Amino acid sequence: MATMSDASMNEKPPRLLVVRNDKLGDFMLAWPALACLKAADAAIHVSVLVPSYTAPMARLCPWVDAVIVDPGEGRKARRDLLARLRSDRFDGLLTLFSTPRIGWLGWRAGIPLRLAPATKWAQLFYNQRITQRRSRSEKPEYVYNMELAEAMLGAMGYDLPARPTPPYWPLSEESRKAWRIRLGEERGLDTARPWVFVHAGSGGSAVNLSAEQYARLMMTIDARLAPSSRPIWVLTAGPGEESSARALYERLIAAGLEATLPPPRKGLDDFAASLSAADLIIAGSTGPLHIAGCLDIPTAGFYPAKRSSTPLRWQTCNRADHRLAFCPPPTAGEQDMSRLDVESAARNIASLLVSLTSREPLS
């Protein structure tokens, strides 16, 4: 078994490269693992390899020291990335989602300790392999990631610290208040009212409720709340989803609900920080839902009846009493959200919202 000797550990803090170079939600569920590494030793230098899309979030992560943008496929891109990995002289490579390209690059770069899940033939490039069988969905994704981080720490000779707890993005209360004031001023919103953010888009990756289901969900929640507990519905949208969000907004306004469309943000980092103004976030299993989880904001997530996409597997990483999850019955098709019980979900979300805010009885 390849490990780092105590002597080498004492010479300088180890330099680690952590790879999660796919979608935003996947990367947000890596933050608990990154927090694990820093909990063992804050001096560990942690770099992350991410695509350009998630790089702004990586730069906000308090557990990351350096960000490397993955240039993607292609001979020149591979050559450039290999040169970068060699020049940074990493002591360890922790790949949370293994691909042959990254495994090969880590091996060619001469990184001495290379750890990844024992899946597919990409594992041949790693000298530390951890069997997890994630497709069985027996644990949350972020827990699988933490286990890999702990295995890396063990291989480096560290005693394992207690696992960090939420929030994994510990944004200050002052920052959250500033965002609430800013959004209130931008849209003339009552800051004393509950604000429920709803991200009805899917980002092209997650199965989500239909616009009709989201409208019915919000109307049902609103009707179940006492007047002083009824929220302001803040409808967020990703690129290309603005027209759908506007159509949903117009439907809510026509039904007498109080709703708003926040202005476009400067970038993903600005959008992500703005979510901290929410009292509750409702979405499919998409990037915004998992950003909220890292912030420890209460969440209500919607998931398909698919073994590899279960509410347990893609659970948000906020506190247990801050999350709700809903999915259709097991007999539904993997892409079929029509059988999800919207009324039951609305009932549970309304109860959570009351517990989080006024604690007044439901009407």
Report a brief summary of the structure.
The chain has 363 residues and is of the alpha/beta class. It has helices at 6-11, 24-28, 31-40, 55-60, 75-88, 100-108, 141-155, 173-187, 211-224, 242-254, 268-274, 287-295, 342-356, and strands at residues 15-19, 45-50, 66-69, 92-95, 113-117, 128-130, 195-199, 232-236, 259-260, 280-284, 299-302, 323-326.
Overview of this structure, please?
- With 363 residues, the protein is an alpha/beta fold.
- The protein has two domains: 6-155, Glycogen Phosphorylase B (Rossmann fold, 3-Layer(aba) Sandwich), CATH 3.40.50; 173-356, Glycogen Phosphorylase B (Rossmann fold, 3-Layer(aba) Sandwich).
- The chain is 38% helix and 14% strand.
- It is built from 13 helices and twelve strands.
- The protein has helices at 6-11, 24-28, 31-40, 55-60, 75-88, 100-108, 141-155, 173-187, 211-224, 242-254, 268-274, 287-295, 342-356; strands at 15-19, 45-50, 66-69, 92-95, 113-117, 128-130, 195-199, 232-236, 259-260, 280-284, 299-302, 323-326.
- The strands form two sheets. The chain has a six-stranded parallel beta sheet, sandwiched between helices. A six-stranded parallel beta sheet has the order 9-8-7-10-11-12, with helices on both faces.
- It is elongated.
- Residues 5-9 and 359-363 have low confidence and may be disordered.
- One of its GO terms (biological process) is lipopolysaccharide core region biosynthetic process.
- It holds the Pfam family Glyco_transf_9.
- It comes from Halomonas korlensis.
- This is ADP-heptose:LPS heptosyltransferase.
- One of its GO terms (cellular component) is cytosol.
